[in-house]
Specification:
alpha/beta; Lyase, Ornithine Decarboxylase, Chain A, domain 1; 2 domains; 9-stranded mixed beta sheet; 8-stranded parallel beta barrel; 30% helix; globular; binds ligand LLP
Length: 438
């Protein structure tokens, strides 16, 4: 029998008396207590993964090496508090993420401000609040930061974002390291060397090193090693031609995560060790002092620490065609299938002992045919009122949620020693709060 139990992908999932448990909590009880749709987060797993990165980076790259949590994956006050407690840095990409980090009391000297289009007011706000580093994409941004920093009497630390020209073989929408990318300045065309020279000449700019990010949800280690090789070679080239030796090299994020049984299990510490070997060898051969290495994991820190619980609202069987299970959420809380046809594991979480034999498409509640969570999956046959669990939704779900159709966003509950709401459920009042009555 193809029991649903076989689909438990990660060690924070288990089954007792036919019910799915997540982080040792009974999901049916949580659905009743908090309502659905509900996003659950496993605090222990988040902290544990942050520690895996931190310890492996220190061990293999040496003192000073650190992970930055890429908070675009999931941003809320509590996650910056956790990152602060775990003594890791963070990557923020907008004024909203920056403001949330400030609210959390996150030390901004350990925050890196990303993005390919920062406005003057973004730059001013970040400098006024003591941002650690800007990661600079282009000349326009470089000059804007220089001008604002000089006006404020500051010499602003930056890293330059460079494109190493690597194709990581992931979904094209999340590949970022190719020469024609909208992000960064290309090494291959010679433009990277020119922008370094320019940055070194500006009084308001304190260039500390380089950044690269090749893409996201990448399982193969080779593109990371190839990219690291190119970046470290560039460090050497700049040292030779301009006499500038980078102090920091940020290798970005991108490690893949297991969403379905066919995805591989990734050992992040081992990946870090393999990349470190490449860098150390190159530095030794070329007599370059290894820069301080930073990495920016987002997805791999929060994805499998999260899951979403829904309630099945209608089961529609189109004879000779297909079956739909419509749930009380959809693309408004998880747009990833609509955007990238991403794979997910779906379970009828209060019928875990039943056979996963009902083939169906999980449809969202929004007025859009493409509002699907997954097509043609096999789950235990649900009835209206049963709970539908979608696993591994911690990354790029809530952070990409919207209010399309004015659907309020779900609550987020953190499961640790106790269960606590870390983002309140939106109400209809919340979604109309900014409207001005005529
Ligand atoms: N650093 C930079 C500069 C990035 O652009 C990203 C992700 C990361 C770090 C973190 O990468 P991760 O470790 O999470 O792979 N919305 C898409 C993913 C977009 C990724 C954007 N950048 C999705 O749902 O798959």
């Amino acid at each position: 029998m193809n029991c649903q139990k076989t689909k438990l992908l990660h060690d924070n999932l288990s089954v007792k008396d036919g019910t799915l448990y997540f982080a040792d909590y009974n999901t049916t009880t949580l659905a009743r207590k908090y309502g659905t749709p509900l996003m659950l987060l496993d605090e222990k797993k988040i902290r544990n993964t942050m520690r895996i990165y931190k310890n492996a980076m220190e061990k293999y790259f040496g003192k000073g090496a650190k992970p930055l949590y890429a908070s675009k994956a999931l941003s809320f006050v509590g996650i910056y508090q956790i990152a602060k407690e775990e003594e890791i840095n963070t990557d923020i990409v907008s004024i909203g993420e920056l403001y949330t980090a400030i609210k959390a009391g996150f030390p901004l000297e350990n925050a890196f401000f990303h993005g390919n289009a920062k406005s003057d007011s973004d730059i001013e706000f970040a400098i006024d609040n003591g941002i650690g580093y800007f990661i600079v994409d282009t000349y326009d941004e470089l000059y804007a930061i220089d001008k604002i920093a000089q006006k404020k009497g500051v010499c602003q630390k930056i890293l330059l974002r460079l494109t190493p020209g690597i194709d990581p073989h992931t979904h094209s929408a999340i590949a970022t390291g190719k020469v024609d990318s909208k992000f960064g300045t290309a090494i291959e065309t010679g433009q990277a060397l020119k922008i370094v020279k320019e940055a070194l000449s500006l009084k308001g700019i304190d260039l500390r090193g380089y950044h690269s990010h090749i893409g996201s949800q990448i399982f193969d280690i080779k593109p990371f090693c190839d990219s690291a090789d190119i970046m470290i070679r560039f460090v050497g080239e700049v040292k030779e031609t301009l006499g500038f030796e980078a102090e920091i090299l940020n290798l970005g994020g991108g490690f893949g995560v297991r969403y379905v049984e066919s995805d591989p299990v990734i050992d992040y510490a081992e990946n870090i060790r393999l990349i470190s070997e490449h860098i150390k060898d190159y530095c030794q051969e070329n007599e370059i002092e290894m820069p301080t290495i930073l990495m920016e994991p987002g997805r791999s820190i929060v994805a499998d620490s999260g899951m979403t619980l829904y309630t099945a609202l209608s089961i529609k069987e189109i004879d000779g065609y297909k079956n739909y299970v419509a749930i009380d959420g959809g693309m408004t809380d998880n747009p990833r299938y609509a955007l990238y046809q991403s794979s997910y594991t779906v379970l009828t979480s209060n019928k875990m002992d039943k056979e996963a034999s009902y083939e169906c498409t999980i449809a969202g509640r929004n007025c859009e045919s493409g509002d699907l969570i997954q097509e043609n999956v096999k789950i235990a046959k649900p009835q209206r009122g049963d709970n539908i669990a979608v696993l591994v939704t911690g990354a790029y779900n809530y952070s990409m949620a919207s209010n399309y159709n004015r659907v309020p966003r779900p609550a987020v509950v953190l499961l640790g020693d106790t269960d606590r709401v870390v983002i309140k459920r939106e109400t209809p009042e919340d979604v109309s709060r900014l409207d001005v009555t005529l």
